[in-house]
Design brief:
167 residues, alpha+beta, four-stranded mixed sheet, 4 helices, 35% strand
Length: 167
């Protein structure tokens, strides 16, 4: 009789273990791959964001309509910048593999980066140039855009941050 109880207990434990493993596999299969993050650091303050809504092609190049909408978007997480400070921008390693650029008041990178981190002078990011006159002005707020590039056809993902210049 004791042997029958012992084997019955082993059966319940085995069934519980199989159930736990099955539940774990179902849970893992329901998870989506997390979106890549972009990070902006100024001094000791850091803000991190997921891709801007509507600006994540999930690995594919954004449509021309989506690109046009994403380029004109304003806002995102806000960080305050003092004149002369360094603004550090970081991306996930997968984004760095694809290549990425930063756009402030105008383009600030000559070519895409394959590094996970870049540093910029704040003054460069707040600088805007009038395309008709060529005159340079500085703005108090700027939308910093970080864009993961595709295969030459445009960005795959974009992140937006607001930089506010502190007097």
């Amino acid at each position: 009789m004791t042997a029958a109880l012992i084997s019955w207990g082993k059966g319940r434990r085995a069934a519980a273990a199989i159930g736990a493993v099955s539940l774990g596999l179902i849970t893992l299969s329901a998870c989506e791959k997390p979106t890549a993050l972009a990070t902006v650091t100024v001094g000791s303050t850091t803000v991190t964001a997921e891709a801007t809504p509507g600006c994540d092609g999930k690995g594919e190049v954004l449509s021309k309509k989506a690109i046009a909408a994403c380029i004109t978007k304003k806002g995102g997480k806000t960080i305050t910048v003092h004149p002369g400070e360094k603004v550090r921008v970081g991306v996930d390693p997968e984004v760095a593999k694809s290549g990425w650029i930063v756009i402030g008041g105008g383009p600030v990178m000559r070519e895409p980066s394959k590094e996970t981190y870049r540093s910029f002078d704040a003054d460069t990011l707040f600088m805007q140039q009038n395309p008709q006159t060529g005159q340079t002005t500085y703005t108090k707020n700027v939308t910093l855009q970080v864009a993961e590039l595709g295969d030459g056809d445009g960005p795959k993902t974009m992140w937006h941050f607001t930089l506010k210049q502190k007097d």
